[in-house]
Write the structure tokens for this entry.
Amino acid sequence: MTFRTLDDLPADLAGKRVLVRVDLNVPMAGHEVTDDTRLKATRPTIEELARRGARVLLLSHFGRPKGRDPQATLAHVVPALATVLGRPVGFLADCAGKDMEAETRALADGSVTVLENTRFHPGEEANDPGFAAALARLGDLYVNDAFSAAHRAHASTEGLARLLPAYAGRQMEAELRALSAVLKSPRRPVAAIVGGAKVSTKIAVLSHLVENVDHLVIGGAMANSFLAAKGMAIGRSLHEPDQLETACGIMAAAARAGCTVHLPYDVVVAREFRAHADHRIVSVHHVEPDEMIVDLGPHAVEALADLMKTCATLVWNGPLGAFELPPFDTATLALARLVAALTGEGHLISVAGGGDTVAALNKAGVADQFSFVSTAGGAFLEWMEGRTLPGVAALEQESVA
């Protein structure tokens, strides 16, 4: 994977306008940011460029506005970003046009400015060449630091990279190097943990993984569909009856590829889907008709812990059980802490991604102890599917042109 980074830029960027594609699409309550994780991810790139004298111009989408929607203005994100950066952050009321060209040329070296929501323009999502050219006139250089938006072929993520000298920001660089280390050129054995509710949303992920990893651990409600596909009675457990044939096909593909699929053989069951519901631990062969599987059992967790100790690389997407309902977060939290310990000891390279996964690792208090935790959602899943991400491809092609 070949792409240019900030290391390939001149040390002195004074007088240069650098358009930086970041992801400021953060959760809000009213006009207040409720989770600044993505803002913090932008800090290394912004600080480095500003320190080198660049006029840093931040491009981002926010929500799904239909035209100019005052509720979707990025102006509301600016105060939180300024707090994260510990410095003043300016704001421009548009991201294209002659007025904005004049505004960007008048900015001070080392300044940081947020431009208005790119999705206020229909040319953004259409990847319109004219709109991409209008964006390009605001800058001299382009940096993409938004891996979370790299699966979209939009003007600010793909079109712009083909019009200006393009570079990967520090967050993008870290994502690409970490993900490449997991599936492109990994240390083996490689394991993947895939959880969540539905097989149907992760068919492509599972199909790609069985061809590339040595061990596939299936958890969450997805595991129920695989257990049912093997003929086991799963009571009232959440599953997808129409995906049983798909589950059988994935297990057959894994067998052909030499990938071992790991399903639980003891589980936690309850009759109510709520926190602290009465529950018991049973073999997967002894689930009663009125019970539902809500977590992996202790023997299954112990077996997975033993597996992790034999592996060199792990990619994790999705919880193992109903982790949002204690105590049915037990398996996810226990395995997360074990993986973190193995990572800290240098035995395991661990990469995790996806909103629920990040939430679970934060709940376990170990997110900062994994080798890498991706802030991306859709882009992380598409990468796990083996798909080409337009925003990444644009950087690769431009960098070797």
Q: What stands out?
A: The chain has a mean pLDDT of 93. The CA atoms of residues 280 and 303 lie 19 Å apart. The chain has 15 helices and 17 strands. The radius of gyration is 23 Å.
